[in-house]
């Protein structure tokens, strides 16, 4: 078995916490954005679509730097949130979760959007004639039928959040116990003499977590798919 | 009953229709392209007329002059579509119960049992729509619409996607519906033969206009060849 040091365990736990929080917080926004892009047409839709996908194509350092400017202690959004809601991002694990959530967002939105687009809108019409208002149509028809896309989006976002490095280290640095995730820890270990073994162990852990997430996603979406055609 | 006076322009197509229905089954009869589906979509609220008025008894569903336009979910009109449109992720039981729950009606097991018996769908109740035949699917769709206790049942070519044997399977159920349930029905079709069996009155539609309103004799002018 792997003999992990306390520092390595801290990095693993922190990574999992950051990735889970980032994915869960991004999820409602991701679903709303996916629905908006799939079902509505409005002025500026192409621009919004581009903005959502921007973190995918921008250098992560740029995304991290923009987060630093806007969500840092003196940034307009960061200062507002710190003063009014007591949420502080800079050099905290919450900042790492924000960076990971932003980086994972396009990967979350895309599969959900495709799943919603593939749903026959006539089923939603049928639900409306049966007395369901928009919210109920969404909750009882659109969302359940989009479950395979939802699972795919969650897993991709989680995997991205788990491995995120560039934006995180730019925004919240590499502080042990606060923002030093598995990725940052591996990077740190490769910079010090004799860190190879520790880096190797964390690499194995990262592979194991990612594989487990993929297998779980495959199983979940196959089950969801079977529900529509089974019995 | 249903009183309707509407106008709608869709590109080059202009629909202008005015008629009233009584109890029983009102057939809206006409060739494809006459505007039948546009008409049913306006009654159900899925399409908004340019101007006019739609009312069922005292309830105004749409009136352009008073800016009334009830959304589909508040019209309580049971719409039976050509393709059934059952929810693939729900069992037959939950499909049947969907409208009842969404309309906020209390569960009514006696009514459920009655409709299930009327349509002979008791053996399908735990299946999913994906495993049903076309005829079974359409019977479940009829049950689903009935169980929301609609003001009006709207059937848009309900047999058009079925083969002759399946049509023969469904028609007796529609006749029982007319004779036993007592919900007024608007039955849209281009098939004179099936309407002859089910209709009590006829509205003949052609090129977006009401050509004639009357009894089933209006069906005789058109295809007398097909027999069901």
Q: What does the overall shape of chain A look like?
A: globular
Query: What level of helicity do the residues of chain B show?
Result: 25-40%
Count of individual helical segments of chain A: 11
Let me know the largest β-sheet of chain A: none
In terms of quaternary structure, the protein is heterodimer
Question: What is the terminal-to-terminal distance of chain B?
Answer: 29 Å
Supply Rg of chain A.
20 Å
Mean pLDDT of chain A: 91
**Beta-strand percentage range of chain B:** 25-35%
Q: Give the largest interface.
A: A-B, 23 and 31 residues
- Radius of gyration of chain B, whole Å: 17 Å
Give the strand line-up of the largest sheet of chain B.
7-8-9-3-10-11
The proportion of residues in beta strands of chain A is under 5%
Helical proportion of chain A, percent range:
over 70%
Task: Return the average pLDDT of chain B rounded to an integer.
Answer: 89
Number of DSSP E strands of chain B: 11
Low-confidence stretches of chain B: none
Q: List low-pLDDT spans of chain A.
A: none
């Amino acid at each position: 078995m792997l003999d992990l040091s306390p520092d390595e365990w801290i990095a693993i736990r922190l990574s999992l916490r950051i990735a889970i929080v980032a994915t869960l917080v991004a999820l409602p926004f991701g679903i709303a954005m996916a629905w908006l892009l799939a079902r509505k047409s409005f002025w500026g839709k192409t621009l919004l679509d581009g903005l959502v996908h921007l973190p995918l194509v921008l250098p992560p350092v740029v995304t991290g730097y923009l987060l630093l400017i806007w969500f840092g202690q003196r940034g307009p959004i960061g200062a507002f949130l710190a003063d009014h809601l007591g949420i502080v991002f800079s050099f905290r694990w919450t900042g790492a979760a924000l960076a990971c959530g932003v980086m994972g967002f396009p990967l979350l939105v895309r599969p959900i959007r495709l799943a919603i687009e593939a749903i026959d809108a006539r089923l939603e019409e049928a639900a409306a004639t049966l007395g369901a208002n928009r919210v109920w149509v969404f909750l009882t028809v659109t969302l359940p039928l989009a479950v395979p896309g939802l699972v795919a989006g969650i897993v991709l976002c989680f995997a991205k959040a788990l491995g995120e490095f560039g934006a995180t280290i730019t925004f919240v640095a590499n502080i042990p116990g606060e923002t030093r995730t598995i990725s940052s820890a591996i990077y740190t270990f490769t910079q010090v003499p004799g860190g190879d073994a520790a880096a190797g162990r964390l690499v194995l852990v990262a592979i194991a977590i990612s594989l487990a997430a993929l297998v779980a996603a495959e199983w979940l979406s196959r089950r969801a798919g079977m529900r529509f055609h089974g019995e | 009953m249903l009183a309707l006076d509407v106008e709608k322009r869709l590109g080059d197509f202009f629909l202008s229709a005015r008629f009233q229905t009584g109890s029983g089954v009102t057939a809206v009869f006409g060739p494809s392209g006459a505007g039948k589906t546009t008409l049913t979509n306006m009654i159900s609220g899925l399409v908004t007329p340019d101007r006019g008025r739609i009312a069922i008894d005292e309830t105004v569903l749409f009136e352009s002059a008073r800016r009334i336009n009830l959304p589909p979910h508040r019209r309580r009109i049971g719409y039976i579509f050509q393709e059934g449109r059952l929810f693939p992720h729900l069992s037959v039981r939950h499909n049947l119960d969907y409208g009842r729950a969404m309309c906020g009606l209390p569960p009514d097991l006696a009514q459920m049992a009655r409709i299930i018996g009327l349509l002979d769908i008791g053996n399908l109740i735990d299946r999913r729509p994906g495993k049903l035949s076309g005829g079974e699917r359409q019977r479940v769709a009829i049950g689903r619409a009935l169980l929301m206790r609609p003001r009006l049942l709207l059937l848009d070519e309900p047999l058009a996607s079925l083969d002759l044997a399946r049509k023969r399977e469904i028609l007796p159920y529609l006749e029982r519906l007319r004779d036993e349930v007592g919900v007024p029905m608007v039955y849209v079709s281009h098939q004179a033969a099936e309407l002859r069996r089910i209709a009590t009155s006829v509205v003949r539609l052609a090129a977006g206009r009401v050509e004639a309103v009357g009894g089933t004799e209006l069906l005789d002018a058109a295809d007398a060849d097909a027999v069901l």
